[in-house]
Amino acid sequence: MTDHELPKTRSGEPRAFFGRRSGKKLHDGQKAQVAALLPQVELQLNGACDPQTLFPHANKIVIEIGYGGGEHLARKAVEEPDTGFIGCEVFTGGIGKMVQAIEAGGLENVRLFTDDALKLLVALPDASVDAVYLLYPDPWPKSRHHKRRFVSPTTLDQLARVIRPGGTFFFASDIEDYADWTLAHIVREPRFGFEANEPGSWHIPYPGWQPTRYEQKARREGRMVSFYFSFVRKAV
Question: Helix or strand or coil: residue 110?
Fold first, then answer.
């Protein structure tokens, strides 16, 4: 697969990318900072990609898909210096903020992928990742746009392939319909298990959780309940 070739769906059709690629323009200072630092931390695909070569001394490999402003990714990178983090984001504003966070925090355990996250998943070896975070993804609320949601049979197949047995896929959203959508897809993927301790426990944030700007926005807009799912990769 070349760098410009889109991953395929299960039916063999090219998977179109529906995420935002631009947004607000970076100011001149941000542009200069991104131009100087991004080439040092950007992950470029040239065929298969073994994340252990990116982080040869890392104890774990973790991916965050759609890190937005980078608050969660930057915080986790500080808290877990022995973990290698790959952040996937195409929104230029988010990339700019994450580059700033990397420089400000001296984060040496973060690499950034600035294209469709599915391309990265396809390039990774089997059982090469310990955890994947998908936090507050775009819900695409209109029914005709549901096919644009990141959670799909195609992406779950790749997530199940690259996450090691015992590893975890973390999904958080404030949109109940997307939470239901995700659960409906997970139950069709036998390599993932969902074991809630008790009803409603999925509304309790992850240990050490700090709200992202998207969660804060949801609260301001009156969406007071979120779903914090943890799907464990089974040893099958």
Answer: strand
How many residues are present in the chain?
A: 236
State how far the alpha carbon of 225 is from the alpha carbons of 139, 176, 182, 202, 205, in Å: 15, 9, 16, 10, 10
Give me the mean pLDDT over the 64-77 stretch.
Answer: 96
pLDDT interval class at 184 (50, 70, 90): very high
Residue with tokens 């790959």: 86
Q: Which position among 116, 138, 174, 177 bears the catalytic label?
A: 138
Q: What residues does 65 pair with on adjacent strands?
A: 88, 134
CB atoms within 10 A of CB 125: 13
pLDDT at 24: 58
Q: What is the pLDDT of residue 14?
A: 44
| Residue of higher predicted confidence among 6 and 52 | 52
Task: Using alpha carbons, list the distances in angstroms from residue 214 to 1, 14, 71, 117, 203.
Answer: 33, 30, 10, 20, 16
* Percent above pLDDT 90 for the chain: 74
Cα separation of 152 and 90, whole Å?
Answer: 19
What is d(CA 50, CA 91) in angstroms, rounded to the nearest whole number?
25
Which residue stretches of 1-70 are H helix?
28-41, 51-54
pTM for the structure as a whole: 0.89
Note if 138 is an active site residue: yes
